[in-house]
Amino acid sequence: MDTRLLLRQMPLFAKFGDEPLGRLATRSIARTYPAGHVLFTTGEQCRGLYIVETGRVRIYRTSPSGREQVLHTEGPGHPVAELPLFDGGAYPASAVTDVESRLVFVPRAEFEALYRDNPDVADAIIHELGQRLRHLVHLTETLAFRDVAARLALFLADYADRHGEQTSGGTEILLDRTREEISFELGTARESVSRALKQLKERGIIEPMPGRRLRIPDVAKLRTLGRPGERAHYE
Length: 235
Known about the structure:
It contains nine helices and twelve strands. It has a four-stranded antiparallel beta sheet. It has a four-stranded antiparallel beta sheet with strand order 2-7-4-5. A four-stranded antiparallel beta sheet has the order 9-10-12-11, covered by helices on one side. With 235 residues, it is of the alpha+beta class. It is globular, with a radius of gyration of 19 Å. The longest helix has 27 residues, at 119-145. It has helices at 3-8, 18-27, 83-87, 108-117, 119-145, 148-163, 179-186, 190-202, 219-224; strands spanning 29-33, 38-40, 48-54, 57-62, 68-74, 79-80, 94-97, 101-107, 165-167, 170-174, 207-208, 213-216. A hairpin with a 5-residue loop joins strand 4 (57-62) and strand 5 (68-74).
């Protein structure tokens, strides 16, 4: 894929003008990594941002006892390590390729030079950070005031909005996370996620497909389950 097009598909760079986006694309580096390649480790100084073109990258932390805790997994079109790109701090977690992966690396120095030289780029970044802050507030509310069932319903509905493919039978998604990874994101146990998924399937709110694909006949109905005061009664 053309690097400029890959960058354009990301919310962070979507509102950049053609000139600054092209400048960033020419300074980015595309490279294929084998499975098991460690991109960076927790505490390492941030060098830049990775974007997955093909393959899959696992983000994790390691406990003092050596136990690995997976935070999330990123697939094609998704960024890796955005936070330290903004604040210049260290990587808060480690990242490794799960399979052979082609990644585009955006050097942090080039990113900084771009928004310092272009007010429009700085405005676009501020707007994107504002959107992320709103999402964080929404996520905090979800964890604090909704049960596991509601959290899962909102998670799947939001995932469908961002990554879903419209078909005659509804919205199809490729869920690139394991149940354990979803449970971590929702702040609950894997077993609770499994029970909630089972009940959603039994009620026909989601339909399993081959692989990790799911079909959601009505995303709006799914989202309703996550509203305050609504209880799905399947936890």
